[in-house]
Design brief:
This protein is an alpha/beta fold. About 30% of the residues lie in helices and about 20% in strands. The longest helix has 23 residues.
Length: about 325
């Protein structure tokens, strides 16, 4: 898919990196704000050659890594902080790195050296009724992804409504949990640009991941789809000329995209509700019904999305956990 050029927006520039093996995401987007020194929003994953690819684009707009004064990370997934360590090494000076407190632990050495796999991951797989071969694929995928980033153990905390300012821009943090508990959008008020990370993406519906690491959550009752839909409400009325996402093309119709997301999730919830009327169901047993063309190694993503929709049905009194297993069984109420 060919990406349209990002619109010219004052002192805001996009750096894009193709993502080999991740065709559904198309590319990873980084953003440079300011006239120097500059703020960097997100950093791409650490594939071979990634740093030099984005460095050439940075040079084309007249900057080097030495001009970066801060890095702001929209959320703690590796394709949004992968190059931070290398950028810092190249800069020749300290660069503070900011992320929401709910996602800070994802950047740390302890999480990454474990291969991003834990006892909680095993318990989730068993609860979902996932076959051993799928669990092994999940583990391999997890261990592979940890190689696409360096840990950031000294990240600083940013919170909702915090601001970052520089010559020609003013960024405000908007906490928009759902895709992850610490997911944030950033609104630039001068040019009226919303940086959406993975909260909004033009060509796909972002996945509100079920949070496996429950012990890390402040709110133990956290439900990702519920809070994701609430987060859409927070940004729907923002006066944004453009939305610059973490992947793919820029967005011009913010309201239309959000309306489409809501309809998508409503239809998926209804589909699941209808399937439960056929009798109690395991999570993994529903994958083929909801995602008939799912690729190898993606069952865990499918299971995650099915569970967050089941949580909506249970909130509405339309489904129940009929047997906590493992594997768990869900039924129409």
């Amino acid at each position: 898919m060919n990406i349209k050029p990002f619109p010219e927006t004052g002192c805001i520039h996009a750096l894009t990196l193709p993502l080999p093996g991740m065709q559904d995401l198309i590319c990873s987007n980084m953003y440079v704000l300011g006239t120097g020194p500059v703020t960097l929003i997100d950093s791409a994953p650490k594939f071979q050659g990634s740093l030099s690819t984005v460095q050439r684009q940075l040079a084309d707009i007249g900057f080097s890594w030495a001009d970066v004064e801060r890095i702001v990370i929209t959320h703690g997934h590796i394709d949004h902080f992968g190059l931070v360590g290398q950028i810092r090494s190249q800069a020749g000076h300290e660069i503070p790195c900011y992320i929401h407190e709910e996602d800070r632990w994802r950047l740390g050495s302890d999480h990454l050296k474990s291969g991003m796999w834990s006892e909680e991951s095993d318990l989730f797989a068993a609860m979902a009724g996932m076959p051993a071969k799928e669990v092994e694929l999940m583990k391999r995928r997890s261990h592979f992804f940890k190689n696409l980033c360096d840990p950031v153990d000294d990240a600083l905390i940013m919170r909702d409504k915090d601001t970052f300012t520089g010559e020609g821009y003013e960024l405000t943090v908007i906490h928009t949990p759902g895709h992850s508990p610490g997911c944030c959008c950033l609104y630039e008020s001068v040019q009226q640009v919303l940086f959406s990370g993975d909260h909004l993406i033009k060509h796909i519906t972002p996945n509100p991941f079920h949070e496996i690491y429950r012990s890390r959550l402040r709110d133990k009752s956290y439900q990702s789809l519920r809070v994701y839909l609430e987060s859409l409400d927070r940004i729907e009325g923002i006066a944004a000329r453009y939305v610059f996402p973490g992947h793919g093309e820029h967005i011009e119709d913010l309201g239309g995209l959000i309306s489409g997301y809501r309809e998508h999730h409503r239809e998926r919830t209804e589909t699941l509700g209808a399937l439960l009327k056929n009798g109690p169901q395991q999570l993994y047993g529903l994958v083929g019904e909801i995602f008939p063309h799912i690729g190898a190694g993606e069952a865990s993503l499918a299971v995650s999305e099915i569970l967050v929709h089941l949580e909506i049905l249970m909130n509405e009194g339309r489904a129940v956990l009929s047997d906590d297993g493992p594997p768990a069984l869900y039924a129409a109420s």
